[in-house]
Amino acid sequence: MSSCKVLQTEVAASDLEHQLKADMKKQSQLSDDGLTMQCPSWLNQEYMEQCLRSHYNDNELEILKFQAMPCLGKGENYLGVMTRVKVEFLLPSKNVTKTRSYVVKSMLQDKIFEKVYGSDVFLCEMIMYENVIPKLKALLSDISENEEIFARTIAVDRQRSCLIFDDLNERNYFTVDRLKGLNREIVELMLRKLAKIHAASAVLNERQSGCLESFQRGLFSRHNDKNYSIVTGMFDACKKFVAQSPGLQDISQKLEKLKDNYMELCLRVFDPMANHLNVLNHGDLWSTNIMVKYDPVSSKPLDVIIIDFQFVVWGSPAIDLWYNFNTSLEEDLHLNKQDELIQNYYYTLRDILKKLSFQGHIPTLHEFHLQLEEKAFYGLHSTCFIQPIHRCIDTGDADFATLIENTKRGMRFKESCYTKNPYCQRIIRHLLPKFERKGLLCLNQ
């Protein structure tokens, strides 16, 4: 649930001009009404000047105008501080003046956050942008796959634990409305790029002797059980909702019996299996981590950029697929089209693996489906416990403390994720019986 998220904008596909105006209005509201965190004190003109001098390799670069403002409101980001910085600067070496906007992502200074995640997630993302992503891009470039997949990085600052990116909003990339989800066109664009990331990572790991297998701290990890309270709190809230739903009382009883074994079942999803195709997963691939560019005339989606690599994890591609499909799609896609989406993803994955001369076994489509089914518990978890958080409507209490703490306030927020969201209610009532018929609520699975 996380983050290089530039300003959350709810794109109305029918009116891009209206969207741009809404973006500006919302930015003003975020700055005025106290919904966002304060900008880091160290993020000033002098700091940005140093970063830009290094990026442009010009020690005479001078910032003429500087403005910093928070990017996000409540419910849009739980794990980081996002700041938009607008600058006008002079490049003496080229005798030009430029105006640019950047997004600075820095670590959340929160005691609860540090207790749960420490600095691991931010270190992971810095390693990704500094070391891993350039190698993935190079592999794809070798086979003439040069389309842009990742945000452009201006600086990786380990001392400050921050990353600086080109502001994708300036290039007309926006997040979709997280309450509406991704439509078919956006999902197909995203899956094509995701398949390329996955395929390139499998080849990189093969050529460099398991170099990516140390990425083991995803949203679930056998190295860290401190997010257990998030799971138990959402479990209790979900069970309460299911128990009160007509026709689901028997399933509620099965959920209760599953509680003691629930974390282990989630952890098994993240265990790499030697007989499966394993890749480097994004790990948090929901709608606000996908930036979309639209045609200014037709409003048709043209391109996507995948952002926020804090929770990358080595394992089955089922981790990304089940998570995305069961948290972020439009309703019809979520309920009826997942097999079609998997097929389209698979064909790109297979083709890129072949072009990169992958030496391991490339599963057939049938084999791939069987591998995904072995990790299908993550589809249940994403539908019933992650989606309600991502699509929460009442964001008044939406912060990291309410996620991690099962206090009265925390449980009130978690329960509201179910009781105040008709969409999630429909999805859970429709899919939970299907998960039960698949045996995903059995103690021995």
Automatic annotation (TrEMBL):
It comes from the Eukaryota. Transmembrane segments: none annotated. InterPro entries: CHK_kinase-like (IPR015897), EcKL (IPR004119), Kinase-like_dom_sf (IPR011009). Residues 163-355 form the CHK kinase-like domain. This is CHK kinase-like domain-containing protein. It holds the Pfam family EcKL. It comes from Glossina morsitans morsitans (Savannah tsetse fly).
